[in-house]
Amino acid sequence: MNATPPITQDVLTLPRKLPEGGKRNIIGLTRPQLLAALVEMGTPERQAKMRLGQIWQWLYHWGVRDFENMTNLGKDYRAQLAAHFEIALPEVVNRQISADGTRKYLVRIAGGHEVETVYIPETGRGTLCVSSQVGCTLTCSFCHTGTQRLVRNLTAGEIVGQLMLARDDLGEWPEQGAPREHTRLVSNLVLMGMGEPLYNFEAVRDAMHVVMDNEGLTLSRRRITLSTSGVVPEISRTAEEIGCLLAVSFHATTDEVRDTLVPINKRWNIKTLLDTLREYPRLSNSERITFEYVMLNGVNDSDADARRLVKLIQGIPAKINLIPFNEWPGSAYQRSTPERIAAFAEIVFNAGYSSPVRKPRGEDIMAACGQLKSATERQRKSRAQIAAETGT
Ligand code: SAH
Ligand code: SF4
Question: Is the CB of 140 under 6 A from ligand 2?
Answer without folding.
Answer: yes
